[in-house]
Amino acid sequence: AQSVTQLGSHVSVSEGALVLLRCNYSSSVPPYLFWYVQYPNQGLQLLLKYTSAATLVKGINGFEAEFKKSETSFHLTKPSAHMSDAAEYFCAVSPDDSILTGGGNKLTFGTGTQLKVEL
Amino acid sequence: DAGVTQSPTHLIKTRGQQVTLRCSPKSGHDTVSWYQQALGQGPQFIFQYYEEEERQRGNFPDRFSGHQFPNYSSELNVNALLLGDSALYLCASSFQRGLAFFGQGTRLTVV
Hints:
The structure holds two protein chains of two kinds. Chain A has no helices and eleven strands. By secondary structure, chain A is mainly beta. In chain A, strands 2, 4, 5, 9, 10 and 11 form a six-stranded mixed β-sheet that branches. Chain A has a five-stranded antiparallel β-sheet with strand order 1-3-8-7-6, with no helix packed on it. By secondary structure, chain B is an all-beta fold. Helix content of chain B is 0%, strand content 51%. Chain B is built from no helices and eleven strands. Chain B starts with a strand and ends with a strand.
């Protein structure tokens, strides 16, 4: 079964500092990987996705993530944190199967990392 | 484009009662998935509907059931509510196995 592990349930950075949120995946087949952001009392918004086209994926709001097969990692980074980045971030994995064979885009989420940005 | 809409946004139910949550997918989407997000946790997959049939199911008891209508909208039903069912219920829609777009969720409180 596929799974993701997010290291660090809480991360605190200063405004303008580098943001690094860690995600490691477990999958026997090449996975689809995603990062979602959730603001308080909101649903999930997609930041970026990896679908094997390129190992460095650029997303919205200046975020990017690099797929490293050798490390089974998909860490999320942003060069300079902004106060508006404070939110909860979820890494997720999905199988690369057709929905008609029972795969589709079922997402398995990590436990989340709460990002705090301080002045 | 209204995106994925869920109703109601909040509701409070008593243990043992039944609840129905509703989801309208994003325009052009034909697949609806439901997730349960307990406080402080990541979302957990409940089930997925495509062509009005349940295609996949997560590790949830039969008290959780659903339906998809011809217009692709969907309902999530939970019977015999337990305190542990208190959570944010998220609906996500997609076109087949494409990107999932999430709604704002329904906050269910069981007392």
